[in-house]
Design brief:
By secondary structure, the protein is α/β, with parallel strands linked by helices. The protein contains ten helices and 13 strands. Strand 12, helix 9 and strand 13 form a beta-alpha-beta unit.
């Protein structure tokens, strides 16, 4: 048994992960966009339903000692044998591999953690993982979808030269809130793990607050990415939905560069600066995404951006991505704004 395991402690399945049945086998996957108690990498694996049943005993109510006793009684196993099986999953620092016949079953790092490390988690029941035939690990195709990405609108605030969206769809009508809610509820009923929304600009939907709130209430964690300047009042509404994280796409703080890259007016950068100030004051975790083109692929320009962003304590990450080719742009246009080959930073 590990030295750091406390038999009186209550352990739970790390809410960064999600378990569900998929026909006669179980799947274990990571949730997207959730604020995690521990770092992890993207993860997906098939489990034997018995593995899922074992993990379901960690309900946050029972001590580890009681969990071991419960497992021992249900499966007619010795206490020490159950302890030896379970202990390797508690605060495991690396991926674990277990052999089942000719297949390897993988378990992610930090699978079982102390209940007091998080405020919200999912409780499972052993009956959730009933099976009646030998699990099929050879069929890699899922019987039910794992992730759903819904384009709420194709309307945009900016006119980016590198736009990856199909702008012809901007003229179409978007799904009603009632239909979106219906899709969300159906997704939850069949065990969809991640339900995310994108566009276009999600925040340009008149009912975006209601949609974000509904997602969070259904334990989905949307990753909102935007170039829209957000007022202080709207930021407060976002906060009221329960949203904690937002991505701001900002390619530069130079007005002339923004005019070329996202075709905005002179007031745009000042509005975006105010947006960052208000988001920081409201306590949002802020992620920055910057696209590198020939217009801003200069270390001085990027250093100015980083220097400006460094004043905000809630900016958690700045990601730089080289511009990619868009099927909705001509090859000739792409050659004009693609990153200079000499730029390696």
């Amino acid at each position: 048994m590990k030295e750091n395991i406390n038999l009186n402690e209550r352990y739970i399945i790390n809410p960064a992960y999600f378990i569900r049945m998929d026909d006669n086998r179980a799947i274990l996957s990571n949730r997207e966009n959730i604020e995690l108690p521990v770092p992890f990498e993207d993860f997906f694996t098939f489990l034997h339903p018995l593995n899922a049943q074992l993990l379901a005993f960690f309900n946050g109510k029972d001590s580890l000692r009681k969990v071991i006793n419960n497992v021992s009684r249900k499966y007619n196993l010795q206490y020490q044998d159950v302890l030896d099986i379970i202990s390797v999953f508690v605060h495991n620092k690396q991926t674990l591999i277990k052999q089942y016949k000719d297949k390897k079953i993988y378990f992610p790092e930090n699978l079982l953690i102390r209940k007091d490390e998080v405020s919200n988690f999912t409780c499972y029941n052993t009956n959730d993982f009933h099976y009646s035939s030998e699990p099929d690990f050879n069929n890699k195709r899922l019987f039910k979808p794992l992730n759903i990405f819904l384009q709420l609108t194709m309307k945009c605030y900016t006119d980016c030269i590198y736009c990856y969206a199909n702008r012809k769809m901007q003229l179409g009508e978007f799904l009603s809130f009632e239909k979106v809610l219906s899709l969300m509820e159906e997704a939850k009923s069949i065990g969809v793990v991640n339900f995310d929304i994108n566009g276009g600009e999600v925040l340009l939907r008149p009912d975006c607050m209601e949609i974000i709130s509904a997602l969070l209430k259904n334990n989905y964690y949307p990753y909102i990415s935007t170039k829209v300047p957000i007022s202080k009042e709207k930021i407060e509404l976002l906060k009221e939905t329960g949203l904690k994280t937002i991505q701001i796409s900002l390619d530069s703080i130079d007005r002339s560069i923004l005019k070329k890259m996202v075709r905005t007016n002179n007031a745009y950068i000042d509005q975006m600066k105010q947006t960052l100030i208000h988001l920081n004051e409201a306590g949002f975790n802020i992620y920055i995404n910057t696209i590198i083109t020939s217009y801003n692929s200069d270390t001085k320009i990027l250093e100015e951006l980083v220097s400006f962003l460094s004043q905000f304590k809630n900016v958690k990450r700045i990601r730089f991505n080289g511009v990619g080719y868009s099927i909705y742009k001509s090859a000739e246009d792409f050659l004009k704004f693609r990153t200079n080959d000499k730029f390696k930073s």
